[in-house]
Write a structure and sequence with these properties.
The chain has about 220 residues and is α+β, with helices and mostly antiparallel strands. It has 2 domains: about 5-110, LON domain-like (Archaeosine Trna-guanine Transglycosylase, Chain: A, domain 4), CATH 2.30.130; about 120-205, Up-down Bundle (Methane Monooxygenase Hydroxylase, Chain G, domain 1). Helix content is about 35%, strand content about 30%. It contains 5 helices and 7 strands, in the order ββαβββββαααα. A hairpin with a 6-residue loop joins strand 6 (about 80-100) and strand 7 (about 105-110). Helix 2 runs parallel beside helix 5 and helix 3 (about 155-165) packs across helix 5 (about 185-205). Mean pLDDT is about 85; it is low at about 215-220.
Amino acid sequence: MAELRKLPLFPLNTVLFPGITLPLHIFEPRYRVMINRCLKLNQPFGVVLIREGQEVGGDAIPYAIGTSAYITHVQPLDGGRMNIQAVGHQRFRVERIEQSKPFLVAWVEAYPLATSSPTETNRLARHIRQALENYVEVLLEATETDLPPSSLPDDNMALANLVASTLPLPAEEKQDLLSAPDLASMLNVEWRLIRRELMLLQYMVSHPPAIEDPDMPFSLN
């Protein structure tokens, strides 16, 4: 059995992936206590998507798969509030939750994304990079804007986490990506999702909404 460790949990309406930064405004007393404790002990906290409940006030039931996060920057504010920046570190799985503190504490085990065949992951990563380039080209043409060139990470796992965090998806779909059993599975789903978004964008560009003439007093219908 994998080794378990205690980890304070921060249930949110967002999904955090390893290597991705997360800005947070800390104002609830229980989470001020939690963040100050993490700072004092130089320990991470766990970010988990809320399955049931609310982000502010009350209790929340989280999904079992989350990502640990280390605090990299703190901006103190009046009244004990603070703005922090954290960065995702490692995927984990919740085994059991304790309610003994003002915030959730869980026993978790490390749940790293399993590696896959390099041939397969490299193939999928190439497809994703090409699809992203096509998406940006169509977007720039549609908006008639000029964006500075950006580079994608060479590491396939970093690419998968970046794509998962930036795709315009519902939180539940992002959670499915975070819960993927292995890297190839995650990349394969992302490739399908990017192609879907590209087809939607291409359709929107080729079928722009009709603009009514403001000087025409009556509808043509």
